Amino acid sequence: MVMDTSSDSDTYPVSSRSRADVLRDLDVSLESGLDAAEVRRRWKQYGLNRLQEMRRKSLWVILQNQLKSLIVVLLLAAVVLSFAFDQWMEGAAIAAVILINTAIGFFTEARAVRSMEALQKLTRVSARVRRDGQVRQIPAEELVPGDISLLGGGDIVTADLRLLKASKLQADESALTGESVPVDKQVDPVVGVVPVAEQSNMLFKGTAVTRGSAEGVVVATGMNSELGKISSLVEQAREEATPLEKRLDQLGRNLIWVTVAIAVVVGATGILVGKETFLMIEAAIALAVAAIPEGLSIVATIALARGMWRMAHLNALVNRLSAVETLGATNAIFTDKTGTLTENLMTVTRIVLDSGEIQIDVGARDGSEFTKGERPVHLSEGSPLQELLITATLCNDASLRRESDGECGAVGDPVEVALLRAAAKANLYRDELLKETPEVREEAFDSDVKMMATFHQDDDEYRIAVKGAPESILEACARVFSENGEKEITNEDRDRWLNRNDRMADEGLRVLAFARRKVKSTEVQPYQNLTFLGLVGLADPPRAQVREAIAACRDAGINVIMVTGDQPLTARTIGLAVGVISEPESTVVHGRVLRDPKELSQEERSRILQARIFARVTPKQKLDLIAIHQQDGAIVAMTGDGVNDAPALKKADIGIAMGKRGTQVAREAADMVLKDDAFSTIVTAIEQGRVIFQNIRKFVFYLISCNVSEVMIISLASAVRVPLPILPLQILFLNLVTDVFPALAIGVGKGHSDIMKHPPRGPKEPILRSSHWLSIGGYGVIMTGSVLVAFLLAFVWLKMEVRQAVTVSFLTLAFAQLWHVFNMRDPGSSFLYNDIVRNPFVWAACAGCTALLLAAVYLPGLGTALKLTHPGAWGWTLVFIMSIIPWAIGQLMKFKTDRKGVEARTPLI
What we know:
Shape: elongated
CATH topology of the largest domain: Calcium-transporting ATPase, transmembrane domain
Number of strands: 28
Structural class: alpha+beta
Number of domains: 4
Strand content: 15-25%
Radius of gyration: 35 Å
Number of helices: 29
């Protein structure tokens, strides 16, 4: 049954019932959960745990977007004018252009929108449940009422739950109740019918666990959950204008007003010099259209969408479009150590007891896993080694699954799994120990005290098992356990243990300390009067490719900064191994010396900005460090995996969450999720961000330089008493053919291979710098000169009629723009082997455009509409020679700038 959780029902809500009653009503056991057959039956009854599909952007809305632009208004005006002057063919042709242009925009935007919607579905939310007596990780949509769900700090609650166990549990319910701060949770029944916000023994779908741990039974899923009932609270995908989109919009608006002014002047001038009024009005409108790259937004959308998909295939899922642009400008990466720079394959390799060190052979299977010196160590009842392993097993939230053929998997934090695997080598298993000493209370790990504790029934007493940071555990201990029993711990003993801890950390081991205590009540404070058991060293080797990735960041002008909660010595060792620092004497800043940024002196701020490793850092200090670097002008990317990292992920310019070990809260807060948790993937994503921006810069340059040449041709021809070398309808055809398709090809290119060899661009750098505008003007002049010379030679020297001469100038401009795409290669790149030549889409665009241009000349209906005719052999010769000139001059200019050593990151002359 799906149980009622609401406060306005005639029945008693589940929050008012006892735990035993809820479990009985749902016909489920806390210890074993549901079995597979019952789960299948409930799937059929209740369906998958999903909310209604988020409303997609409709095709009608996408179509409307194509008709909103000023370009379409100008084209429609041209249609009306054509019909008013009885130019029915021109009017029909321009209308056809509107339809074709709208169709291209519609289908490309629709594909991009659907791609981005699909991209959001690549991240799957998971849940931990107990089924058939085993803890398993399953997709959250497979939850059914009656499932026993296990949650910890940082998890997203994926169904409505009645709490059965809770330790220091708090939940962020702001999305559901509007409560701005996390609320405390408990397990006892709530008296009476109360609002959702007061149901303190419930967790609701869509909320987040911010602290503690819990077990609960699923009472409602999907649309039966509180979140499902209040559909208005379901998060909708917001369309936000990215900085890039804002720049493109501003660029378009500026071009519109400049062009309208030019069009008015040109039209009036043409009429004054005696040209046909309709022709000049139509030319003025076409000139306005020619100057504005109407394919800009289409190509930008496709470039961003394809770039996001390329990142997804490279294990980087981008959640927000704005992140794509920001990635290209990132110049500082704050990274965690464990799992990002290291393999996150934690293994216990050493145990230090009062009597000495014990090594653990990871690969041994002959009973010699534990050795002291070269002699095997055998566990005896009540020995310090056994007590430590029992404590490490009890004070643990992970689980191992065991079958007849041995272990087949684990669920939980990698450190806790490593502890269970070490204990398993001594035939100590958590499920068996819990039968003898059941857990009755848990103090969840607290990042402030850096400890965790569990209480276990042990006859008429309670055993407290504690683990945490060595310095914190030692501070809470009054005794130490040795071969001869417990003895008082002295300050000298604490110093000796801390020195051991430092030596292990200096070897790159992650070190945990363990302690125990026997008490008569579960109400005592767990972190007092403890007995120290020893230290455990866990090895986590650096990732294979991380050193090369960090070196690539250094070449790209990106600072890599390690920010970890681990010990300074461990952080320094790993930092040296992976190349974050190069000298053993490099400064490692301890979290205890970090102060509020407002209180820092200039000298302290400078030292922080220069440091590359920060150890024992709290979540609050991560925020401060990000703020300090951002105030210094840095564009900061921040990695994180825990719920405490969520504020820092939001604060950073690019928040990067771990897809494997990251909490769901962290993934929700991040701009990007790494499917493989690898640092090298961050570098790959930054490279793709740079490529995307460079591609956009290239096709914007290409589009505007082509359109500027069209404006110049019309303007110059209109100012003198000569026929127009290119007619308005022909301009529209060119904008449709030789602008959009090559620009699209540039937009999806893979970029220059040396793009990560140069510093990142400035965050406020415009799409086109002043040098680019000078180059655009230069190319515009060259193409204009080629077209006008071709027209005059055809008209005066070859004595062609006007229509044939216009055909020559039209084809000259069209092919000049096609060859111009090869001028978009980066300076410093090879003439024959560069990012443009290697792009198969460029060749496809050129081939397709050539076929369309030939159809425009030789296809009867199209040729008549465009007023084109066969140019003849001499005409084609003239077209080829004059159209190749802009490309040839562009390549000569490339060679000249190459010799001057222009930076390869500047893609254009």
